[in-house]
Design a protein that fits this description.
single chain; alpha/beta; five-stranded mixed sheet; three-stranded mixed sheet; 3 helices; 8 strands; DUF779; DUF779 domain-containing protein
Length: 124
């Protein structure tokens, strides 16, 4: 099965640091508004996915959710979670006090990859 989500080594380090400080985490990438489409990191349960949002994979064992409308647009794309120095818009995400911001890099799946994608989990 082809994974929909990968994580850079830099992002893994920040996730481990956040998990040590905050415990279980979760990620959510919204479709717009305040934070745009920047992925946000919360303490697990700190954000509640809406009905039919998509969980596309695990970021270091923590669920990575995508807004249902955004997923419809990006469902044919592979996500790579990365982290950059600096502050993203807003500042709701747990990495903000570290002077970091999560970012996703996208690429389209090949035709062969599309035939063997991991399934997504939908919120109810």
């Amino acid at each position: 099965m082809i994974k929909r989500l990968d994580i850079t080594e830099d992002a893994k380090k920040v996730i481990q640091e956040l998990a040590t400080k905050h415990g279980d985490l979760m990620f959510y990438q919204a479709g717009g508004c305040c934070e745009g489409t920047q992925p946000q990191c919360f303490e697990k349960g700190g954000y509640f996915p809406r009905m039919n949002d998509a969980m596309i994979g695990l970021a270091e064992s923590y669920e990575f959710w995508i807004d249902r409308d955004l997923f419809e647009y990006w469902q044919y794309s592979h996500f790579t979670l990365d982290v950059l120095d600096g502050f993203g818009p807003g500042g709701f995400s747990l990495e903000t006090p570290l002077g970091k911001t999560f970012k996703v890099h996208y690429r389209l799946f090949s035709d062969d990859e599309l035939k063997n994608l991991e399934p997504v989990k939908r919120s109810e």
